[in-house]
Design goal:
Layout (H helix, E strand, L loop, with lengths): L6 E5 L6 H6 L3 E3 L2 E4 L2 E4 L5 H10 L5 E3 L3 H12 L5 E5 L7 H8 L7 E5 L5 H15 L4 H11 L4 E6 L3 H5 L16 E8 L2 E9 L1 H16 L5 E8 L2 H14 L4 E6 L2 H7 L2 E8 L2
Parallel strand pairs: 1-2, 1-6, 6-7, 11-12
Antiparallel strand pairs: 3-4, 3-5, 8-9, 8-13, 9-10, 11-13
Helix pairs in contact: 3-4, 5-6
């Protein structure tokens, strides 16, 4: 086997549809979510069932990273048939997942490369997809890591939540503390920058949030898009459909993936929507 058969591993906060995961041959290691004494792999519960359980629960669900042993088992299985692994994950600012990966990697000498995506949710998924494309084109693990590092800080994400309660209670609010509370029906528009949640604006009403959020997002992407988009939602399917159509109208011919936020990310966001973009290279 040559250097061009690297397996790509990511984690379940990538929030990619299963069909895309399978198409790109990605190995997705699930985080865990615990609710009312029961623990599930991320993705085990459908979005509607998870929100019903979360809304009925006395306490906010908790989330946890995969263990070192889980990473070890996955790496061992993949390396039985592939020469190398590139493992792409969300940053330590929100999860210890990448540290579990890093602790597992040395057991396999230099055959496992772990890289920080600096972002999570849909853009992490888009980055993993690009890594897979490079791997299939014959790139070495080192070349794949360099490709990820070249695009990760140009990834863009805008998301708007119906409220900040989950984000604040879950401790993942980053620098968006100033947006908590305030006037009735405030919709915070947020992004992820330098591996932390950052405020963009806060506006009143769902319609204004959608318009303002997309305007900001378009400004980040620019007039031309040479990459992929992903539209995400947490119990906001109609808004997600509208966003898809608006992005498609703004960037005709662009590839747009539609997906649902998984249970782990939804625990910290609550209801809302997001739109992400990652350049081709």
């Amino acid at each position: 086997m040559g250097t061009g058969d690297a397996a790509i591993v990511t984690d379940s906060t990538c929030d990619l549809p299963l069909s895309v995961v399978e198409e790109y041959g990605l190995e997705v290691i699930p985080l865990k979510v615990s609710i009312e004494g029961e623990t599930f792999d991320d993705g085990e519960l459908g979005q509607e069932e998870f929100f019903e359980r979360m809304d009925a629960a006395e306490h906010l669900p908790t989330t946890s990273q995969p263990s070192v042993g889980e990473f070890t088992d996955v790496y061992e299985r993949l390396l039985a048939r592939r020469s190398s692994v590139v493992s792409v994950h969300l940053p330590t600012t929100v999860s210890g997942t990448i540290e579990s990966a890093r602790q597992a990697a040395p057991a396999f000498d230099d055959r496992v490369q772990v890289v920080n995506a600096h972002i999570w949710s849909g853009p992490l998924g888009l980055i993993a997809m690009r890594a897979s494309e490079h791997a299939r084109a014959g790139a070495s693990p080192e070349e794949i890591v360099r490709a990820v590092e070249a695009i990760r800080d140009r990834a863009t994400l805008a998301f708007a939540l119906d409220g900040l309660d989950n984000l604040a209670r879950g401790g993942r609010i980053g620098n968006a503390t100033a947006l908590v509370g305030g006037i009735l029906d405030v919709r915070p528009i947020l992004t992820i920058r330098d591996s932390v949640v950052e405020p963009v604006k806060r506006v009143r009403g769902a319609r204004r949030a959608l318009e303002t959020g997309l305007d900001w997002f378009y400004g980040q992407v620019g007039d031309e898009a040479r990459g992929r988009f992903i539209v995400l939602h947490a119990m906001s399917v109609e808004r997600a459909q509208e966003i898809h159509e608006l992005v498609e109208g703004r960037y005709p011919g662009a590839e747009i993936i539609d997906s649902e936020l998984g249970a782990v990310v939804s625990t910290h966001t609550g209801n809302g929507w997001g739109v992400g973009y990652v350049p081709s290279d």
